[in-house]
Target: Protein KTI12 homolog
Amino acid sequence: MPLIIMVGCPSSGKSSRSQELKEFFETSKGKVVHIVSENEIIKNSEISKNEVYENSSKEKMIRADLKSNSLRKLNKNDLVIIDGGNYIKGYRYEIYCASKSARSTQCTIHCAVTREKSWEFNENRKDKNEVYVRDIFDALWMRFEEPISTNRWDSPLFAVTPDDQLPFEDIYNAIYEKKPPSANQSTQNPPTQSTNYLFELDRITQDIVTEITAARKLGSIGSVKVKDSTETVSISSDINASQLNRMRRQYLNYSKQHLDTAGDLVKAPTLFVQYLNTVLSDL
Ligand SMILES: *[C@@H]1O[C@H](CO)[C@@H](O)[C@H](O)[C@H]1NC(C)=O
Ligand SMILES: *[C@@H]1O[C@H](CO)[C@@H](O)[C@H](O)[C@H]1NC(C)=O
Ligand SMILES: *[C@@H]1O[C@H](CO)[C@@H](O)[C@H](O)[C@H]1NC(C)=O
Ligand SMILES: *[C@@H]1O[C@H](CO)[C@@H](O)[C@H](O)[C@H]1NC(C)=O
Model:
């Protein structure tokens, strides 16, 4: 019945940790353990890993499968480990609500790692189909929403770095010696950010850059209207896609550091356009 959610940036050791947990719970505690692996789901979808994370609709599809496959395996006795990035706060909240309504206990394991180290792991992967390209790797780091132990849906939270031992007994106690939370508080205090905020912001800004680039190709310069923005973009003749993408990444980086003041997504296209206009006028 219990559920363990692995959380981590690319190449932070989630799959190895999942295997260690499986081994422990099977041999020391005699449990049946199911690992539901995002990598496996991607493999079966026959879409490459990089393609999945560069296209938000594909990523959503994989995430939906990961969630439904995991929840389907929840039963009275077995342990389910969700081995995936699970980097979106709103997504973890959804899983929490579902596992709670199945009367399941759960805990979160954050595989913490430095960006340099994870890039090194990434580059040294044996299976070359699993290597992230730099852009996707950076984008996933950017969108990553760290679990926080004071969020009910991330709690109890265990963080491990590559050098740490997993606190096996504490994890066991957290999920087997504890009563599941009562089902009727599940909707109190949902995440205040609209769910999937950074993920959606990434998609929105990507669409706008695509629109501007397409307009440039058709020869448009000056004021260009982009979908869902109340303001137009002033583009000059010598701007190119890689410059726009760099601005987009800076904007996402800035947004991530100011999440507490983030507004709603409806205004996001206009705010991004205003940002672009400011940066473009300074070039
Ligand atoms: C993203 O994936 C969807 C569904 O597979 C596809 O329809 C769409 O064209 C893709 N978008 C891009 C930008 O590749
Ligand atoms: C809901 O929560 C309240 C207070 O926490 C409790 O008294 C009540 O029994 C709960 N109801 C159900 C159906 O669990
Ligand atoms: C884009 O423009 C910048 C600045 O003008 C230039 O350094 C860069 O090489 C250009 N990139 C491409 C792909 O054309
Ligand atoms: C994001 O912003 C921080 C602080 O402003 C900076 O240190 C970091 O290098 C930026 N990262 C990227 C990828 O631009």
Remarks:
- Residues 3-184 form a domain with the Rossmann fold fold (CATH 3.40.50.300).
- The mean pLDDT is 89.
